[in-house]
Prior knowledge:
By secondary structure, this protein is α+β, with helices and mostly antiparallel strands. It has helices at about 5-10, 15-25, 30-35, 40-55, 75-85, 95-105, and strands at about 30, 55-60, 65-70.
Amino acid sequence: MNPHQFFKLLSDETRLRCVLLLAREEELCVCELVSALEESQPKISRHLATLRSHGLLKDRRRGQWVFYSVSEEHPGWLRNIVAALGNSNCLAETYQADVKRLAAMAERPSRC
């Protein structure tokens, strides 16, 4: 993926918020992203499919759950940007609220 494609993918706020949470949490299911972002399941699923089809995300199935994570198969510059986003402590209030809602979510699916 070239820089133009990467930044174009992240120009959508919902996709950016998904990637920020995935970079921070390493792996999340759709229901966790729906809860954290307070968006509909179809909207989140559509954005995850776009990110996956461009190779930015990968998924794995475990029973009824589909877990998403950031793919490691990218150039170093891209991995560095995603890691920096996930480790940033000075994100806008919107993104901090996403993290808080995720942390407060009850009955999150098991990853075992």
